[in-house]
């Protein structure tokens, strides 16, 4: 049964949580959806030893922050639109402001700033729990409504490179 805004069951928070837990990459990294309100999503990740920069480092690998921002931002699009349509990340720009300590969880707050039928723009801030200053910020652009064939093969007579 389809509920509010085309979401199954009518509970968008439950759908977003379930979606976040079923994405293998997010699940393997240990990402958890904490909240979904209006046009934003909060996600949390508890660092594991294998997510640190190297064996001697005490900081979280920056690629983990990148993955957290992408996941939280994608779910923020669903929070804002209240529809489960396919999306694809077009661009993700991150500013790493300071190292994320590997001994505390990090929380991403992603907010969908604007969306159209074709594109969504999201801002994301990542903070270490208990800290007031962000460790990273990002801007993510998504293509929306991406079903079907996206590219067509060129004619055999077409000489474009």
UniProtKB/TrEMBL annotation:
* InterPro entries (alphabetical): HotDog_dom_sf, PAAI_dom, Thioestr_dom
Hydrolase is among the record's keywords = yes
Pfam families for the chain: 4HBT
Q: Which UniProt keywords apply?
A: Hydrolase
EC number(s): the record gives: 3.1.2.-
Question: Under the GO molecular function aspect, what terms does this record hold?
Answer: hydrolase activity
Q: Does the keyword Membrane apply?
A: no
The residue range of the signal peptide is: none
Where the record annotates domain Thioesterase, the positions are 64-133
Official protein name in the record: PaaI family thioesterase
